[in-house]
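sanity check both lines:
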Amino acid sequence: AGWMSNPPTVSHPAVSGGAIGLGGPSIPAALKHPRTPPTNPSVDYPSGDSDHVTKRRALGISDEMQVNLPVNVMPVSFPVHGHSQAFNAPDDLPKTVARTLNQGSTPMSMDFHPIQQTLLLVGTNVGDIGLWEVGSRERLVLRNFKVWDLGACSMPLQAALVKDPGVSVNRIIWSPDGSLFGVAYSRHIVQIYSYHGGDDIRQRLEIDAHVGGVNDLAFSHPNKQLCVITCGDDKTIKVWDATTGAKQYTFEGHEAPVYSVCPHYKENIQFIFSTALDGKIKAWLYDNLGSRVDYDAPGRWCTTMAYSADGTRLFSCGTSKDGESHIVEWNESEGAVRRSYQGFRKRSLGVVQFDTTKNRFLVAGDDFSIKFWDMDNIQLLTSIDADGGLPASPRIRFNKDGTLLAVSANENGIKILANSEGLRLLRTFENLSYDASRAPETVTKPTINQISAAATSAGLADRVTSVVALSGMNGDARNLTDVKPRITEETNDKSKIWKLTEISETSQCRTLKLPENMRVNKISRLIYTNSGNAILALASNAIHLLWKWQRSDRNSSGKATASVSPQLWQPSSGILMTNDVTDTNPEEVVPCFALSKNDSYVMSASGGKISLFNMMTFKTMTTFMPPPPAATFLAFHPQDNNIIAIGMDDSTIQIYNVRVDEVKSKLKGHSKRITGLAFSHVLNVLVSSGADAQLCVWNSDGWEKQKTRFLQVPSGRMPTALSDTRVQFHQDQIHFLVVHETQLAIYETTKLECVKQWVPRESAAPISHATFSCDSQLVYASFLDATVCVFTAANLRLRCRVNPTAYLSPGVSNSNVHPLVIAAHPQEPNQFALGLSDGGVHVFEPIESEGKWGMPPPVENGSASSVQATPSVGASGSDQPQR
């Protein structure tokens, strides 16, 4: 009998080290009695030699040679779809391009939700993760890579991130029930999020898992306990408790980086397959007794294996080092190739990825196209180019029912292909989402009957039953928040009409004034550290203030919070971080600073030389660039901490290499001092802004100026002579926020076009500063009348106003005290801090019962859930939202 003669049912085709037991006994016997595999003339076993360059290529470091990590078996059962229920080939293959999405960076790994089958997770080559509701074309979540707690990370990881902060997603995958998902990164780290429906994802675990890259990640249920399994460049496999993050097992024995893992079970025995880049496959039980199996993989270079959905047929797909690709079906009993499928390009231009669906079809991305085979026929069934624009070896992923196929495309795109049932499914969710967007946001929960009725009309009743069952585990419909049908009659209920949230009393929000031990006149610059546990301020007298939160019973995370007071921190030496100053009038000085990604250094200037400080000791590491001209804005290059862009008061921008103490380029294009700089690591550009109200886009490779545009200053608003213009990139790294005393605006970078603008009324106070929340879903703006406004970022619609009476002491006049700067917490989207003109710093959070800053107003004519969807508007007009 074959080693997998009685396989379990699985929810999705399983990629596995299945060839381990070809021609051998059943897996439990093989695990208990390791042996040398028999020689099989029908299988070509490679030498398994692998050098460093091969390893890097195999792990997808190069864009030209990208490897898609395998799909893993989940030990959970779903209904089996028999062969009689298969598609009627080829009409029911998902071949119609139904959606085209833009992720903002190159997709590296994708996974559909196991139950809500229109939810797609995406991980990219710059470490971003996205969650899409493909039915409504809505990107629910976009997160950039950030280490959540750098202090808890190993020194090798900290050193690696300083040397090269570039991070890619190697794997993103849902847990079996869709309540969690995991992300494996190319640098040491695994992050586990919990999913609560809609756009609600929450940080759960961060694990410094491996030295080097984490090459694969999977979930499994040994002993009925959910675990996370990882493998990495350090040649190990590790098992972690998915609840606590505690390490349970470390498996050592591979002599090369471990490329993939596949947990499986048979006859109540749980085990893990692992494959390494030297061609070795090993199998492990959940104990510390070492590998039970040690075989050579039947692929010439990178081979992955997959089962049909019912677990009865085994396939493998591989690409050799010289580009020869193949898909084969195995005879499990004899350990021989049953059939080899034809139709690949003679020399593939990348490592080919494949998938299976419905126990009937194979699909692979090859030769700039998608190729399909019937499992019972070696000839190519059909090939499609998905309307063009595909990479040489596109990444592919079916949803569980095989009705949708996600395909990576050029220019950071994702195409969603659908069959007739998939198109019906997408239309249903699109209609529900459209109905939702027309009603007030306060009416959020549909009834089960509404969902069932809508789904039944589209023939989707079975799917709704499973979705409802999932939501029932939580006792409510939280997991259905991406499906928001509304009863239109309810919109006439006066109690449901949207109203702007006004906060005027201290009891209506959580605020904390940070302690003061020294007197400063005003706060000129303010920032949270990247770790989120401290706030750094630069005062007008050139002194830096650093507040640190400590772990305690009241603050177990040690992160910044308005609930616990921090310590105004100084090193034991008692020295202060004080900038070099000149004889210039302090009111004319433009202070500036920038913090390194690992929070170790701050670069700062207050009209004199630029100083580099050590954040731990407060010691001055070096000073450089004495004025004139004086620095007015500083920004670290996102890929190299040694390169900084320095905006000057003579209107130039200097690109300076700290390591060699040399100005590499001097950029000229503005006519007044530089007041804002922002890099996009996706577009490889630098955006600059100046007191001349001009925006410039520069290529960050050769530093050529690409585009320039002046702000449209609203009529009736006369800015001051040297009004600052600030810029900040959205999380998508394609759009950016522009902040000017007369307006807030969102610009698209490649065309340098304004896609959304908000202008205060002529009688309103000028804007002093504004910033995106850490997830780019909100914009926090401060005003010279001490008011703070919170906007929905997608459409710049006002949702909450914090009045000065909510945080200023009684008797303090808001004509004398007002915010000059505002900063957003790097991990908590609803926390921000203000730096005031009297030297005070205040931290704000919504009250716990609310959890957020007001409700967004209803959106007319469809959803404005993404920046890309917002129409261009002029500088004025009746549709212009105003304070």
